[in-house]
Every structure is written in structure tokens, then in C-alpha cells.
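Thread: sanity check for a docking pose with 2-acetamido-2-deoxy-beta-D-glucopyranose

Original post by kr_44:
Hi all, I'm comparing my docking run against an independent structure prediction. Below are the sequence and the ligand SMILES. Could someone generate the full complex and paste the C-alpha cells? I mainly care about where the ligand ends up relative to the chain.
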Amino acid sequence: MEAKNMIPKTLLVGLAVIAIAYLYGILVEDPKSYLDEIEKSIIDAWSEYITLPKKRFQRVAVGINCNLDLIVPALPLFEALHVKPGGKENHPRLDSLQSFQETFHHFFSKGSAAERAFTNGSIFKEIVEAAESLKEKQYYIGGNAALMASKIKFLFPDVELQLVGPIGPKLSELFSQNIQVPEESHIEEDEVHLIMEYRVGETWGDSTATVATRFITSFDESNSKMSHLETFFSSLLGFEPDLIIISGLHLMEGEGKEFYTGRMKVFRDGLNKLDPTIPVHLELASMANGDLVQEVFREIIPEISSLGLNEQELSFSSHVLKGPHSDDFVHLTGQPEIHKISDMILWILKTFGYSKERPESKLTRVHFHSLTYHILGTIPDAWSNNEAAVAAGTHTAGRQACDVKHLTPEQVELRIPATFTLYSGGPEKQLDHKHPVIFWDYEGYHFVFSPVLVCRDPQKTVGLGDAISATGLMYSQYNRGNLR
Ligand SMILES: *[C@@H]1O[C@H](CO)[C@@H](O)[C@H](O)[C@H]1NC(C)=O
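Reply from moderator J.T.:
Ran it for you. Here is the predicted complex with 2-acetamido-2-deoxy-beta-D-glucopyranose included:
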């Protein structure tokens, strides 16, 4: 017996040596060239999926949150304000230079990014003036609505675009000439979001930054009160859009239940009066108030056609509304599992979306985006060109994060698991790099998945979700007339 086994064993060892030598050649000596092949074939495959729909959106109305991002180095700002390091304390809201200093110091010493609103406008104004006096400063377009509008204009210069929101003089200068801003949108002073950056190794008092990150603060009454909501709806009449994109609901979080319930009613009534053949997309953004999220889902979601959101927003929504995998939110770390995300998208469509049993709901599309992959779920009769939309969205994610026009394999990497399932109980899958856009039909809904090629050295991560959602929409075609 032993003698008989000797031959195949020797053969096996021999083959294994050859195989290892071969793998060594491609993986160890030059692991990147092998991996780059995967990325290259995904980039090439995407371009085959990305085709424009037969009927493109031509007139797009966007609102409502707009602001001016002012980026400055954090420590020189405190110097200009004559504020010394002092103690550390995490204040939920900022009302003085002292609470500002203590809260910043708290996060600086921990090395974590944070955002805190000011409750005192005159002190915030003083801080912004000090920031503007610094030599090193940069102004950028900020706010989901403003970012989506400028992305669409960049991708499709021929599209007629109207933007409504609080737009001050500096922000106005940053927009392309061809974005229409109605007169009522202009405000006298920009709503500034102050982004204070610091680098690894910078020291302040007894603390040293262990990572490079940022502290953000603002006193943004226009956006937190959605002061342009009425203007937004009234401006739609003269413009006659064929696509409406809205964001900014999340900014009302700090305003108290009575306030946001009242604004939500105005929002809902405005949506309810719109022509139902015009699709309305709502882009969510980070929310921590479970009650506000519940109101958004119960009151607003059935009044919109399309919803865009990321893993934090999706899993938090499922958590507060007792959807699938609702406890995962509590211990969410790293990237969410693919099948769980698609379960949650299905749940939103089934629970809040259009169906024969719920014909009054307009919701027919959910576009999920995360760092490593995107999934789109639709009612198939209502939306077409969905594969192109997802491919265009994932393609945009890598390009915008790397801040390049064309992706090259060396700049990016695939970060989805080697095997995954597309929905709970589904078969195990592996990505075919030549066909990275996967689509399937499940319980009457159409789903599309594509991985993202994640930028290795990201340059621009602000507004990534906005760019993805705006791109996906512009590659989609709405066929509401097909619904019966
Ligand atoms: C804001 O702070 C200033 C300076 O401390 C103070 O005089 C003013 O009363 C504060 N305003 C509000 C609304 O608290």
C-alpha cells in the first residue's frame, strides 16, 4: 500500500512545488500585478455597463441644504482667537469660547473627528472672522443639495439645473454660472461650516494628535430650520422639473420634536401636491435622533419616489423601526454584510413602498451606497437602466475619492469578501471580475449590486454619497406610467 502511494505523493509534491513557484512568481514577487489585473478587468467591465438611458432627465430641481465650507488649520485658529489649550470636556452644544476650547481639546486628544453646533451666533461669528483672517484657508461648496447640484452640472452641462437653499455671496461665486438660483434663495451672509483640520504629531497643551482629522462647527439657522422649504416648493412651479432632488431633513435634529414635526408637515404637504409623474429623490444623511427617523419613514418616505442612503442611515433606520438585523446597528463595525443590506432594502420597499396593496405610496427605488459596494433595489416597472446607474455610481465613487478623471488599477482596491450571499438564504457567490455588476429579481423587486474600487489614498471624501446618488439618478430612467 505504502509503495503504491509513493508515486502519487511524489507527483503531488512535485506539482505543489511547481504551483508554489508559479504563485510565488505572480503573488509574492509581484503581488500587485496579479491584483491589479482584477481591478483592471472591473474598470473595463464597468465602461460596458455605463450607457445613458433612452430618456434622460433634462430639468432637475435640487434643494435644500447649502452652505459654505471653510477649511482652516485648527491650532492657528485658536492662536488668532487668543484661546489657550486649557481643560478637556465634551459639551454636546457649544455656547462660549470656553466650551468650544474644551470640546475641541477633548476630541483632539482622542484623535477623533467630531461635529458640534454652536448655539450662540455672535460668538460663532467672531470665530469665523478669526478663521477668515488666517493666511491658510480654503472655501468649498458644502451641503448635500449644493454638492449634488454641482455634481450633476459637472457630469451633464446641458442639463437645466435649479438650486434652492440658503446661498450666500461666497457660495454663489463657487457655483458654475449655469446653475439657476432663484432670487429668494440668496442670503446676505454665508452659512459657514468651519472645518478645523490638524495633522499627526501636532501638539496643543499636554496633548498630541495621533491621527490627522478634523473638528467641524457651525451656527446654521437656515439649514437647521429648513428656512427655504416653502421657497423650494414655490420655485418648482415656474421651473417645471422632470426630476426633483431633496436633502437636508437630517439637519433639523437639534431643533426639538415640536419644531421638526411642524416642518415635516409642510414638507409632506408640499410633496403631496406635486405631479406624481415627476420622480422625487430624497438623500438621507447622518442622523442620531430615532424619533426623527421614524417620522421621516412614516410621513415622508411614502411621498417620495427614490431614497439614497449609506450603511449608518440604513442600519439605524432598521434599528429604530424594528426592521431586519435591527440589533446589528448597536455593534456595527467595519463594512456591513451584503445580504443584510439587501434584506433591509427589501424591507423598506415592502414596508413603505408602492405595491398593489399600497398604491398611495410613491416609493419605488432605494439606492444604498457604502465605502466598498452599492446596492440598488427597485420596482422593475418604475425604473430602467439600473445596471448602468449602479455601475456609474460605483465608478464615480472611486474617481471622486481619488480626485482623478480616469481610474487606474494602482490607485484602487477591491475590498468585498471573497465569498458572499446577495440576500439571506441565497446561494454563496464569488465576484466574476469580468461581470462585476450583479443583478437579480427577488420577491417582485429588481436588485443590482456592484463593488466599489476603493481609493487607496483618498483626496476627496466630502460629498461622496451625494455624488454617487446624483450620478446614479442621472443614469436612470423613470417610467412611472408603467405602474398600474
Ligand atoms: C452670546 O454670547 C455673548 C458673549 O458671551 C453674550 O453677550 C450673549 O448674551 C450670548 N447670546 C445668547 C443668545 O446666549
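The longest strand covers residues 67-73. Hope that helps with the comparison, let us know if your pose agrees.
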